[in-house]
Amino acid sequence: MTSKLTEPETEAQATPLTQTVLPARKPQLLPPRPSPHEAGPRSDSAEFILLYLPTMVSVYTARHQQIPPSPQSLREHVFGNAHHRACEACREETEFLVMHQKKFF
Amino acid sequence: MHSCYSPADVMCNFASLPSAMEATQEIGLIIVGAAGYRGHSALEILPKLRAEERAKGMHLRLVSLAEANENSRAALASQAAALAGSPCPVVGMLSEAIPVALQWLADGQTRRKLLVYDATPAAHHYLHLMTVLPYTARGHIFYLGEKPLFTDQGQIDFIERNFARQTFFCELIETENPAFRAASEFLLSEPFQIERMTFWRASCMGVLLAAGDGRAGAEGGALLDKAPHDLSVSLGLVGPRFVERWSVTQARTHLLALHEDAFRLGKRNFLSVAGTSLSDTHCPARIPQHQPADALASFEVHLTLGGNLVVPVSYIASWVGMQNTPPELTLSSKLASLGLAPAEWQNHEAPQLSSNRQYRYQNQEVRIALIEGLLGNRQVQVVLNLLAKFAGHRFVHLIGEDRRREILFEEKDACDYHDSKEADLFAVFQRVVEHCAGLRTAENVATGASLLVHKIMLGALLKAHEQLPATDQDAAYRASAVAYAK
Question: Which of A101, B204, B221, B260 has the greatest count of CB atoms below 10 A from its CB?
Fold first, then answer.
């Protein structure tokens, strides 16, 4: 290749990486939120139904290996409310994927 | 760690008679990501596909298009009307197209089926598959998605637990490459015993992305983006249903991909599999999308076939062209020893300026496979060149111990890359549509083969990423920077 993307800093030989073990992902729970309406879009909004809900289903099923009992309980799991802590990992991944989809809007 | 699956795990996916095979004469189509690179190709092949299927007594109808980009939707409506013969609803998201699909299915006098083609970026495939699968058994809506369908093992685990007997398809386009079809027919028709296979697939997508010339939606890194193709070819050559067990025996990330900020701002920024910037590859990724993307990876797999026959298969996947790593040098010298000149399988484009005029680079591509084995009692090699790009042309040569070549397949003239790709996409669509119509099976792209390809790919990715926490990030960055600049 003759790309000139940057000036080489050191040797030209690719360095193989050595082995070790990657720690498993551990989801953390966030503190309960004072109101169910504080996080995420409204449950009856088009954004929630068309964008958030399918995304939350995909994130939740891959991470927890279960079918969510209902959209409402899924929302509570992902965003939390006054009584339930949010699942930080699910929320982070959901927000990331929603933003990722919005890049193509 | 070896990722092993029992014969029962693998075989159940092939043995089940999918509901997709029940006969029908009316098939609807929804294209998601219709204005993108592959979505547009799918639209373009539609008139020819409709004509060919009509001759077989089948009616293929474009039911809806989904395109997230609002500006592209208006043009899509008129384009669809011109290509499909009648207008169809154009919506934003797949979830909006599902009610349209259900209505079309309900309106049929006879049983209809519907295929959803997903041409969106890889990060959206699993959520689209999860949107379609609940309707597969009851509603006869089937999913066909671009590779990779899965980017996390948890996604595969969930599908296997809950939708094990449902049919879906991955558009593994190389299984319709004429070079693969020719080699596959040869191996099936002759007493050929495969002893070893080696695959090398390189593009400069990493360089293009860093230079600001990458295609929107091109993500994942070399292993996720490239390996599914060669995995599908290798499994197709042995027959996916004959793979009883597999294990990833070795995997290595030789080079990590860099974000364009590394060049634009001079920062030590790696690239994530979802195309974002990563400053630290040691920190375990909290979400799968934050895993680092590799620029060059290699891995070795043992496929155990019937009679405990083990076939070792090596794969090299690159987003930074050729870099002279040990596996690349080994295969290069093997090809040279067989009398293959580099010009026969290395494809180059003249050096060019990036669209922002900041960088100069040369596009370089390789898609070569070497199959070693016994033809009767003769030691032979079959070489497949799968790439029709730049000045290259596709071929399959049988080479004996005396280096004499027999041409099993050869494209006479270098054909246009876009045309060859569209022809292969057409063949995939035709096979899937005819699978859904109950005419023939699409074994190389249906549930069993698709799951197998992705399980091995993710097994290799996991094994390669076990190395990351011990990596010297500064040294890895320098090595990548050198590779990008070579």
Answer: B221
